[in-house]
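User: Structure with zinc ion, tokens only please.
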Amino acid sequence: MFSYTEIRQMVKDISDAAKKSKNAELLSQTFELQGTFLDLMSENQDLKDQVRDLKDQLANLSQQKVDRDMLVKFHDMFVDKDMLQTIKSTSVPFSDEMLEHMYCSKCLQEKDSMISMNVLRPVESDSYTLICPSCGYMVYFGKDPNRGRVSFF
Ligand SMILES: [Zn+2]
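Assistant:
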């Protein structure tokens, strides 16, 4: 394997030799070679950037690895266990701070990712709807929400 610096020097040497030779075809092929070399260098940089981005994403994913023991089911969502009582005793609309602890059950079960629910606007007078910003999964609350359905995940 040659390093980029070595290859760059080789391309330059070939280019110098081609100029000296005054052979038009050789010169044009040398320009092509230089172009290809520059393309490869730029492609290599792009790939390096992509690898770095993927590594970052991977690090983020493992950081937010789901700890299922800390979750309980509530209204077809999952909520942080230590927030369950607070959430159960709060009437709708939920605050943003509260919503942060309420996760889409579809994303959790299918993609293993914890996506906090959003409020679907406009809020209708007789119902209150939460929506997952990632997959669109919705959870409805009626006027008198049944808050008894709590099961452990
Ligand atoms: Zn979702």
